Every structure is written in structure tokens, then in C-alpha cells.
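User: Fold this; C-alpha cells only.

Assistant: Input:
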Amino acid sequence: MSLRSVVKSISRTFNFVTDHPLNRDNKLTAILRFVKWQVMLRLASKPIIHSFTDKARIIIKKGMYGATGNVYCGLYEFYDMGFLLHFLRKEDLFIDVGANIGSYTALAVGHVRAKTISFEPGPVAFEQLKKNIEANKAQDIATPLQMAVGEKKGVVQFTTNLDSMNHVAVSTDKQTIQVNLDSLDNILADKYPALMKIDVEGLETEVIKGAAKTLAKKELKAIIIELNSGGKKYGYNKEAVHEMLSAAGFEPYLYNPLKRTLTHAGTFGYYNTIYVRDLPFVENRLKTAEPFKVLNKII
């Protein structure tokens, strides 16, 4: 990597960190936190257990680019993670499709103590997912499954060299492994989730196609889903997912954890989108949730 590329990468990271909602009011502290953690990760002889929120913990080590974002910014995906923390209750079931190392899972089981089923096909990320469950002493309420989720039962090739961007392989991918595949309808036949998070690097269409019965369950109130251009490599587009979710009664919203307000989204698909059904129920949950603490802020 050239010096110019390194400088541009650092600049993008600094801009993201200082513009994050939890850092905007104190950018200098955010930069110092970033520098401190860079030094700590390079000097540490073993992974560091980081206090994610006032109740949840996550294990951080060098090379975990997505996870370290939670250190720099408190909650890396602030709006969506804030929604999870305010919406979920202990009696709920949370489904984490594309869990990676388990940032969302750690919040669900560590902070809320909600029952959780997490899917992650990548062997390295899956091992870290299990360690994060153990770090939160949540083995009794968390079920990690090393498999991919799609439209039907089968096997697929999965990349192994792209960190948090690993995905079901296409013809140009070289470093892959074979993993099992099944649908949410098959796996969750007798289970009733309240919230799902789906982040499968473009294969969201296949996941939704295999979840028609799950989407029809009235207990399911919200879905956090990544809709961007990633589906193009599989021949899908985000509009198809939007149409399927809309047909099931879900509408796209943006959430502001600081104000605890939902705003109907005029557009969707740039980053994560929160799809909500039974709006009065969801809004009541958000307004009556216990506050959480992150970066010494009560939210």
C-alpha cells in the first residue's frame, strides 16, 4: 500500500470517528481514544476485553476493523445498535444473521440478556463469536450456528480472507471453504423472534426468500437489514428486498437513540435500514426502555 493510500485511509477513519454522533461534541477526546487503542492493540500480547456498554463486553484484538469501531465510537453502528438496545427485552428472541464476531449478539445477550440465535459461516469469525458469548457469560441464552442462511437447504462456498466482508463466494473469489446452508423458515419453524438483524454482504434477497413463514409471525416486529449495492454480484437488487418486506407489512424507518424517535425513511439501502411493523407497539417499547450507558453517556 502506498503512502498516499495509507494517509487517505487514516483520514477517512479520523473523519468517521470525529463525525460519529457520540463523538461530535468532543472530537479531541475521540482522536485521543483512537490513538490510545492503536497503541494498546499493538502492545497487547493477548486480546483485550472491552466494556462495550455498561453491561456488555466484547473481545478486541489487532485486525478486527469493525470491532475496533465500537471502541472508537462507543457503538459503531449507533442508530441500529441503539434501536436494538432500546427495543429488545429479556423475554425476546433475537436472530443475528451474518453475526461475524458478534457485536450485535454481544449487545443482545450481554446487555439485554435476550435469547439469541446467531449465524456465522466463517470459521475464524465463528470462533470469536463464541468467545464473545462466553465473555458475556451468556452460553445459556445464546445459540451460535456455524452456517449460512439462504432460500433453501444445501451447501455453498464462503470466502475466508475478507475479515468482516466475507461472503458467499462468486466466481472471482479464490480463498473459500464449503459451509452448510439452510433457510430461516426451516431453522425457526417453532421459534418466534421479536427482532432480526440481517447482514450477509449482498445475499439478503436469498435470506428473505427463505423466511416467508418467519416474516408472517406476528411476534416479529422489526428487522435491521443491510441494503446496498452488494447484491449486484449475485444478480439481486435492494428494491426486491424492500418489496418483499413491504408485502409482509414492514416499512423502513430511521431511529434516533438520543431522542428515541422513529422517522419514516424516504429512501433506503445506503447503510442499514430498520424495517418496522406494528409501529405503536415498537414506539412504546422504545420510549419505555431502560437507558443504557456508553462512553460515559446515558442514552
